[in-house]
Amino acid sequence: MLLINLMREIFDACCLGFGCDTKAVVHILAHRDATQRAFIQQEYRAIYGDELTHHLSSELGGDLKKAVLLWLQDPVGRDATIVRKVLSGDTIDLKVATEVLCSRTPSQLQQLRGVYLTIFGAYLEHDIESQASGDHKKMLLAYVTMPRYEGPEVDGAIVMEDAKALYKAGEKRIGTDEKTFRRIFSERSRAHLAAVSAAYKQNHGKSLEKAIKSETSGNFSYALRTILYCAENPGLYFAKILRKAMKGIGTDDTTLIRVIVTRTEIDMVYIKAEYHKKYGKALHEAVHSETSSHYRTFLLSLLGHPPSH
Questions:
Q1: pLDDT per residue over 142-196, tens digit each?
Q2: How many Cβ atoms sit within 10 Å of the Cβ of residue 291?
Q3: How far is it, in rounded angstroms, from Cα 277 to Cα 73?
Q4: What is the C-alpha separation between 85 and 294, in angstroms, rounded?
Q5: Reduced to 3 DSSP states, what percent helix, strand and coil does the chain have, rounded to the nearest 5?
Q6: Using an 8 Å Cβ cutoff, are 172 and 200 in contact?
Q7: Assessment of whether the complete model's pTM goes beyond 0.85
Q8: Interatomic CA distance for residues 112 and 108, integer angstroms
């Protein structure tokens, strides 16, 4: 009842002609989990006969609007929306599609494919087929459709076989056997690939990451490296993406929003730890210096560091 009463009080002020209490909206929504956000939207629909997102879309603006509306979506629908936009929108961005798809678990991808079809009336595989090409396309199609084990156990013998097969498919020969890379990276679990990476370095004196960089290129290389990074240390992978979004002149707010919003309820504690370890600065301090106003407050709240007033 407390949540319902608070929701009614704030959104009456926001959407019934009294102007938007943006501070209150940010405070409430940033501190509610996915189930609570869904409940708030359900109650709003029941009370006002309209979607909360419609009202917030008209009341908020800029990067805050983008962040809040993305946050309000359920996690699977949010991923589907992000991927659909970069595969069929005005600007095709295969790197973002690769980031999202190759960083999700098999169970997450299975749910994403179903929701994608339900929301957009299109198959994810069809959109990949239409926009990607070559080994990158083959890699994405295999990765999103292939079932993979998600547990921690690995078979040491198969690990050694795969490490050897990847060496033969890449560094040991002239040219690259991309099919072997695609097969291993689409069929093996994260725990297995992490073990393969360690075995590769031990047996061949060079990291598997460097081998991928030297033997493959473009979006195919990025897909392989994303899969490998998320097998070994997804926190570090996303910390690097956030750093790149904030480094230099200007801020890539689209990336900043995408990563913070999609990872907050998954592994943000690890991302924050890896960011501080690698760059010697707290992630929330970096975000604070690159953002302002209610947008800053919202992102910092998601990070667990709302600014003090």
A1: 999 999 999 999 999 999 999 999 999 988 888 789 999 999 999 999 999 999 9
A2: 22
A3: 31
A4: 25
A5: 75, 0, 25
A6: no
A7: yes
A8: 6
